[in-house]
Structure formats: C-alpha cells, structure tokens
Q: What sequence folds into this?
C-alpha cells in the first residue's frame, strides 16, 4: 500500500465527510493506493456514526474508537501500530490541513529519501495572542534544545516513512515532539515543507493555553529521559556526589576553623551553633538521597525489557 492517512479526531462530525472526499479525490488523481485511519478520541457527538457510514461506502476508510478521551498522542500511537502504508501522513480533522499537500509530502519521502517531513504553517489564521506568539516561543525553545531546524513543531500535517512510526513510542502530549523522538531513534533526515493553513470551518478549537505549559514540561521530560533513561546514575550519581562533597567540605572547614581558634586561645563558636553547619548537613543529606535515587533508577532501568533494544538499520546474513 502506498499511503496511510491518519486522522485523530474529537467531536468533528461536520468535517469528516468533506475531509474524506477531499482525500479520496487527491489520491485518485495521483493513482495512489491508500487507507484512511480515523481515531475517534472519545467523541461525544456523532463522529463515530459518521465514520461507520463512511466506511460502509468506502472500505479504505477505517476507524478506531476510544472509550474515553485519551489525547492526540494516544490516538496517533494506536494508529501507528496498525497502519500499513509505505508513507504515513498525519493531519487534523478540522479541515485546517489541506489534503492537496499529500502528493508533495509523499514525493519528498519516496523520491528525496526523507524520514520525516513536517508541515510549516507559514501564514496562519489563528488568534495571534492565544496561538501565534506562544507557538513561536515554543518552537524557538524546541529548536534550541533539539537541534532540529523546524519552524512549526506543532503542525499536525506531517509525513513519515512507515519504518519511522513503527519504531517510536509516543505518550502524554509528546505528539508535537515526534520529529525529536524520531531523530533520537536514529532517523535523522528530517525536512520541512510550507503548507497552506485554512481557517476552521466547523466547530471550535480543542486546545488552549495549557498545551504550551504542558508542552514545555513534556520537552524537559523527553530531554531528560532520552539522556538518562538507561543510565540514571549518570545524572543522580553525579549531582549527588557533587552535593555530598560540597557538604563535607563545608563541615570540615567549620571544624578546622574551630580547632584553630581553640588552639590559639581565641573566642570561637561551636560548630553546631553556626548556620553554615546546617547548610552543610542539608547538602550531605540531599547528596545521599540523590545517590540513592540513582541506584533505585538503575534497578528500575535494569528491569526494563527494552533496555537493550537498539535501532538496527541493516543486516547482512544474520
């Protein structure tokens, strides 16, 4: 199969017939074999009924329905596990992503050899204060941390080689970081394409300010786990040792200072009467706790069955 189009959705009953008809027209013009995988993320309207009706007319339209709302990452991860196309394209269900972009995205994956191609909504029709400005700050931060030169990590319109989606795992709200996850999994050829952004035709946006706060927290989580998931002692042990040594040094300095003053017959304060002693004590305790956290992390990591799972690109006679 040439193409899988994955559409996560939540309460988008009005747009689904128009969107699927648009995709069918584009794929027919390009003579591409395709499937459309719709994931109903716990909708409370008639979205699932509409999907069933569309499937009865076109078996290439497939559906997955969640019992409740789990989020976009869960929807994408579930669809990635079942999709069969050589090229996988994700798009939102609200008609703001244009299916006319599909042929060029497909060509960039097949002919130019990209692992991931991300859409860039260079001209947006969203609220400037609520979406555009926070999105620019979010994208700037992600570029600096990940080293991936994309302008719009949040764009739902993306294309992937099938191998990419089968070798990554996304959860929480990590869907916006799929290019970052793909890069860290060894898929480094990541491109970008300017795509047309359309005004929402039906319904209202399902996202608010909280997605940017959650986005930054997820970015920190993703960065930390990528670096230290398999070797947590490298983080906790390092900073635990540094903190412990600082505490010990401060305590030794206080003790030496007291002994020197005492031997010279000068007035001195008891070590335990000085605030610095308690700071050194706190540093020693925190250092021990961090070090023990590293040991616990190593025990948990050692129990992970995927600890020694690595991405293999090619094999010869194995």
A:
């Amino acid at each position: 199969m040439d193409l899988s189009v994955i559409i996560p959705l939540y309460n988008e009953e009005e747009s689904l017939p128009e969107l699927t008809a648009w995709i069918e027209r584009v794929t027919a013009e390009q003579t591409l074999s395709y499937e459309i995988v719709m994931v109903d993320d716990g909708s409370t309207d008639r979205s699932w009924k509409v999907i069933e009706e569309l499937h009865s007319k076109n078996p290439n339209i497939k559906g997955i329905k969640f019992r409740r709302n789990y989020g976009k990452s869960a929807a994408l991860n579930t669809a990635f596990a079942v999709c069969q196309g050589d090229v996988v394209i994700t798009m939102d269900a609200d008609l703001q992503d244009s299916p006319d972009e599909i042929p060029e995205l497909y060509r960039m994956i097949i002919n130019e050899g990209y692992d991931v191609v991300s859409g860039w909504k260079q001209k947006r029709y969203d609220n400037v204060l609520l979406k555009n400005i926070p999105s620019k700050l979010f994208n700037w931060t992600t570029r600096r941390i990940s080293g991936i030169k994309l302008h719009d990590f949040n764009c739902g319109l993306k294309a992937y080689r099938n191998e990419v989606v089968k070798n990554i795992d996304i959860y929480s709200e990590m869907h916006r970081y799929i290019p970052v996850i793909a890069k860290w999994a060894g898929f480094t050829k990541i491109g970008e394409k300017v795509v047309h952004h359309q005004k929402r035709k039906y319904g209202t946006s399902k996202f608010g300010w909280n997605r940017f706060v959650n986005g930054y927290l997820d970015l920190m989580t993703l960065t930390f786990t990528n670096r230290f998931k398999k070797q947590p002692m490298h983080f906790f042990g390092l900073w635990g040792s540094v903190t412990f040594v600082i505490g010990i040094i401060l305590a030794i300095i206080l003790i030496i200072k007291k002994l020197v003053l005492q031997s010279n017959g000068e007035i001195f304060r008891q070590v335990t009467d000085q605030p610095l002693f308690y700071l050194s004590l706190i540093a020693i305790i925190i250092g021990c706790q961090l070090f023990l956290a590293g040991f616990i992390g190593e025990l948990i990591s050692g129990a992970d069955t995927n600890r020694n799972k690595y991405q293999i690109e090619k094999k010869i006679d194995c």
Q: What stands out?
A: The chain has a mean pLDDT of 86. The chain has ten helices and seven strands. The first strand starts at residue 3 and ends at 9. The radius of gyration is 27 Å.
